[in-house]
Amino acid sequence: MIVNELSNVFSNVPIEPEWSAMTDSRDLYCPRLDVVVGPFAMGNNQFEHTYDDMMNNSHSLIDRMLAFHHENIEKLSFEVAQTSWDDLFYTNQNARCFLAIEIENEVSRKHLIGGAVNASALGRIGIVVAWNEEKLKAMVKLRRYLNFLTRVKKNSFNTENLIILDPPQLIDCIIRSPLKDKPIERF
Questions:
Q1: Is residue 185 part of a domain?
Q2: Is residue 79 situated within a structural domain?
Q3: 133 — phi, psi (to 5°)?
Q4: Does residue 184 form part of some domain?
Q5: What is the pLDDT of residues 83-137, one digit of tens each?
Q6: CA distance 121 to 95
Q7: Is-cis flag, bond preceding 168, omega within 30?
Q8: Residue 125, strand partner residues
């Protein structure tokens, strides 16, 4: 369902389920993301300017996702969510895709870490969709832990471009998106 709905919004870019990110590098771990919105930066191809255009053209979609993300963070961690549109725009300039979506349901907390890292590392915007309240709480705690490690100057992973949503929130954002059929200028 998510792929079909995303196709209605991003009609002229590829959208793939179960996308393997590093198939061009046999000597590297090859994460597989649940859903991705391209274009896909493989090999020496980079789409920084295309992703910039996509960010600018999808401002209302991103703002809506951020609002839900902030709501989830504030409700479950009692902290003020700090992620901004600029964080999403500038954190992962050398992304492999525009949106990297990981759907987390029947996985351990260790797998949640992997999903968060893969979505954030590979997408200009990484999205973790927590399938139920338990996974949503676990993802918020994980994000808080990674941010804590950064604050106390420990090795960590930057989650500035990571959005945490539940399925109804993601679908609401996509369905209400005014982007449908808006052309992407550079691709």
A1: no
A2: yes
A3: -60, -40
A4: no
A5: 999 999 999 999 999 999 999 998 888 899 999 999 999 999 999 999 999 999 9
A6: 7
A7: no
A8: 99
